[in-house]
Amino acid sequence: MQAITRVAELRHALAEARKEGKRVGLVPTMGYLHEGHLALVQASRTRSDITVLSIFVNPTQFGPNEDLSTYPRDFIRDEQLCRNAGVAILFAPDAREVYPTTFETFVEPGDLAMPLCGAYRPGHFRGVATVVCKLFNMVQPDLAFFGQKDFQQCAVVRRMTVDLDLPVNIVTIPTVREPDGLAMSSRNRYLSEEGRRRAVTISRGLLAAADKFRSGERDVEKLIAIAKEQLNRVDRVQYLELVDAHTLKAAESPLQRPAALCAAAYVGSTRLIDNVILSLPTPDGKRSLGD
Ligand code: PAF
Predict the structure, then answer these.
(1) What are the structural domains of the chain?
(2) For ligand 1, atom 9, which residue shows the shortest CA distance?
(3) 132 lines ligand 1 (CB under 6 A)
(4) Nearest atom in ligand 1 to 57's CA
(5) pLDDT by residue (tens digit) across 208-242?
(6) Which of 33, 57, 73, 254 is the most buried (most CB within 10 A)?
(7) Dist. CA 285–CA 87, nearest whole Å
């Protein structure tokens, strides 16, 4: 595995592979890797010849009162995990490499960035879209892999690639969960033991609603109420919304199109997000969103 910090070096390392017609897969991350990231690497390895994993804690997607300075970092451990997982190139640029002092151009996402997290984290998706666009230009991957846990991020990135004609296929991988259901997240490490026990009520609520959906419930209010009932051990639910999976606008009863039940909640000062996709099985028995 090569660990690279400079864009020029990255381009040089990938030029040879590209000449040989190899498919490049990109797994963009902010580090502090967990099983969810490793599932993205695994998916990339099965679909690409070369997997590039980027680690960059992107300052432009954090608000002024958010956890940029305390975001968990452990490069040595991440490097070892990447090596073991079969990553070919670990790209870990520093902030000046990505945002030189003269930097002033951003990607501004549209309506998909407005609801859910976008309503509570102004500028967040502008920062995400900008850095992902830059990473796509730096790596020029054939495929890029994102986790469904960041459902809205996937929607924003997918739309950006279409709107800006970026020649990248976006692949979304199902959320990886702890055995009790809690969605894997680098931020889980902020939780105390007691907080961790309460955090699981987020996934419990969402998964209970998904169960009801599977057994035929199609009423939006009822599905939200089922999730809400379980979500009572967090300190604050920031949002719990059932949205159309494609437009992210409020879903209508009875559900007839793929929808996503999305939640953001605080356990102590830790903000966690999770979601479940509620979609009718397609004729071949799959429940995908048409990825
Ligand atoms: O999901 C993340 O870790 C980040 O938002 C991403 C996609 C790496 C952009 O900074």
Answers:
(1) 2-173 (3.40.50.620), 186-288 (3.30.1300.10)
(2) 128
(3) yes
(4) 10
(5) 999 999 999 999 999 999 999 999 899 999 999 99
(6) 33
(7) 33
In whole angstroms, give the CA distance from residue 196 to residue 276. Answer: 20
Q: DSSP for 2-13? A: EEE--HHHHHHH
Residues of the chain with pLDDT under 70: 283-291
CB 40 less than 6 A from any atom of ligand 1: no
CB distance 128 to ligand 1 below 6 Å: yes
Residue 114 φ then ψ, to 5°: -85, -45
User: What pLDDT does 281 receive?
Assistant: 72
Nearest by Cα to 135 from 58, 61, 47: 58
Q: At what angle do helices 7-19 and 124-139 cross, to 10 degrees?
A: 50
CA angle 282, 160, 50 (to 5 degrees): 80
**Distance between CA 234 and CA 267 in Å, rounded?**
5
- Which tokens belong to 290? 């048409």
The sign one gets for the Cα dihedral 252, 254, 260, 264 is: positive
DSSP class of residue 21 equals: T
Instruction: Please count the CA atoms within 13 angstroms of the CA of 99 that sit on its side-chain side.
Output: 14
The DSSP line for 156-194 is HHHHHHHHTT---EEEEEPPPB-TTSPBP-GGGGG--HH
Looking from the CA of residue 128, the nearest atom of ligand 1 is 9
